[in-house]
Amino acid sequence: MKLYAALSKIGFLRNRYALKFLFVAFIGIHIPLIGLIFFLLFYENKISPTNIFVISLIMTLVATALTLFLLKRLIKPIENASKALENYRASRIIPNLPTEFSDAAGLLMSNIQSTIRINENLLTQKQELADLLSNDMKRFAETPMEAARAIVTKNPPDEIRTLANSIIDSSAWQIEFIQSYIKVLKEEEILSKKVFKVRSVNLAEIVNTIKRKFADRLQDKKIFLKEEIKQSDAYIRIDSESLISVISDLVDNAIKYSPEGGLIAVKIYREHSHLKISVSDSGAGIEGKSSNDLFKISNMTRSSKLGKSSGMSLYLSSQIIKKADGTFYAENNDNATGATFYVDLKQYRKK
Predict the structure, then answer these.
(1) Fewer Cβ close by (within 10 Å): the C or N end of the chain?
(2) Considering all CA atoms of the chain, what is the largest pairwise distance in Å, rounded to the nearest integer?
(3) How far apart are CA 16 and CA 168, in angstroms?
(4) Which residues neighbour 259 within 8 Å (Cβ) at sequence distance 6 or greater?
(5) How far is it, in rounded angstroms, from Cα 34 to Cα 140?
(6) Which SS3 state, helix, strand or coil, does residue 92 take?
(7) pLDDT tens digits along 158-187
(8) What is the pLDDT of residues 119-164, one digit of tens each?
(9) How far is Cα 108 from Cα 87, in angstroms, rounded to an integer?
């Protein structure tokens, strides 16, 4: 950046990034010629043609190396801008790029710095607004719930009692949705700062961890968890903790919507250069949603006679897989009973 800053102080180079390259290249090209002229003018002894050739060659090589070195230094603003974007995208690290330069590279750094700061301010405002609205919405839901509960305690007629209980159930659902929404916002904030690197993941151990985690719930509903692990480990861009979170959400969702005595199947296999993970349930399936729309936050509600869920955890799981450069989708089973959720992750070669 020192060379770039120094050249930016020269009047005719100040606002032209490309001209800085041309200026350095022009000087570098003419260094051998200028050096040779001075050598011939001031060297008093006779010089043979061979010596002139050797001197010219040495000066040309030195000038070429110096020019390439300086041109590499001139690329530093672009490298800094690229690194700043990558660090922000991966880890939400706010850069400190210079904003005082007026050429193309300077405007690029200034615009990146400004855009990142604006984005951070918007995210902060979004979080503050979401917290404010969620607290107000929770209070609005609690007020009719308390009123309905008070009505129930007065031993009203059956028709009024039914309506009051309906208000209580509806309010409870709203409060659960708001709490889930707040949780997702906080988890998204944590996820945005998390760095996913390519690493080796033990898939068999992950499945065993999930089986232990849900053993009691599976037993309570007499649900059989079938596992089919055709690949026990993989080299993928996600850590074990995040992958356990995603698969746990899928299994939790499957348990919730599978009837008593149902079947849940977890399958891990390789498809071409990708790792595929599928979780199938025997519940009600997915109604009226395409695979492309399913994981939008506005379409996350799934309901059946077994219950209703906001689906926020599935939305968060989709964001985790998206950050891991994977895809997350779902399909109804062929037998019209239940649905299958898929995680598709690219596999990498071990270094």
Answers:
(1) C
(2) 123
(3) 68
(4) 282, 283, 306
(5) 82
(6) coil
(7) 888 888 888 888 888 778 777 777 777 777
(8) 888 877 877 777 777 777 777 778 888 888 899 888 888 888 888 8
(9) 16
Cβ-in-10-Å burial (0-12, 13-18, 19+) of 154 comes to: exposed
- In angstroms and rounded to an integer, the radius of gyration of the C-alpha atoms of the chain is 32
Nearest-CA neighbor of 207 among 229, 189, 236, 234?
229
Neighbours of 38 (CB within 10 A): 10
Q: From residue 328, how far is each of 11, 194, 289, 345 by CA, in Å?
A: 54, 19, 14, 9
Look at residues 77, 86, 83, 79 and name the one whose alpha carbon lies nearest to residue 110.
Answer: 77
The position carrying tokens 């990498």 is: 348
Q: pTM value?
A: 0.61
CB 110 within 8 A of CB 97: yes
Angle, CA 118 vertex, CA 191 and CA 193 arms, to 5°: 15
SS3 content of the chain, % helix, strand, coil (to 5): 60, 15, 25
Quick: pLDDT tens for 60-101.
888 888 888 888 888 888 998 998 888 887 677 888 888 888
Q: Look up tokens 């604006």; give the residue.
A: 118
Q: In this structure, what DSSP letter does residue 344 have?
A: E
How many residues would you count in the chain? 351
